Task: structure prediction
Amino acid sequence: MSTTDEIYEKYLQKAIVEINDLAHEVAQAGGGTRVPVVGSGHPLADVMLLKFRPQPAEVQEGVSFYGRAGQAILKSLQRLHVDPMSVYGTNCLKFADGEEDESRPFLTRELHIVQPKLIVAMGESVVEFLNAIDFPLADTVEYKPGELERFTATVQVLVVPDIDASLDEAPAKTQFWNAFKPLGQWWAELPPY
Result:
């Protein structure tokens, strides 16, 4: 009989293979002329951070949340006592010049692989994109920063302002932080495995 740890390890190995396969498919979709920006973090994360489009530093490295946004998020997670090793971050669009139609199936697969308990949707464009993927049995998410909403029976969404647009001015940083703070309470109430 398998132990819980052994079962988790099997799911983790499967998720790693599937995330790597997805990254390869995204790269192929770039046709060798566009740089793919793939998700990063734990492949079975409790929390999925979701931005709309990759920024230049992310495109340069090919990794979501590389650069200013990633550093700001890391500091915010630390302030809220959320384990950054239980977080996965990705963009709706997988290329700087990406189109929504080509990217929707990629995000749908990412959601199925990672199976987060909470999606942090960063900005109105992300909320619209999330609603447009027609995820099975999903409720429509509204742009209500700082409020937890039901997405599916097993996944909630926390809407926050766009992190990339929130880094340059103090009022925007404050709005982002105030909307992001409920993540700390959600995390503190997360049942242990």
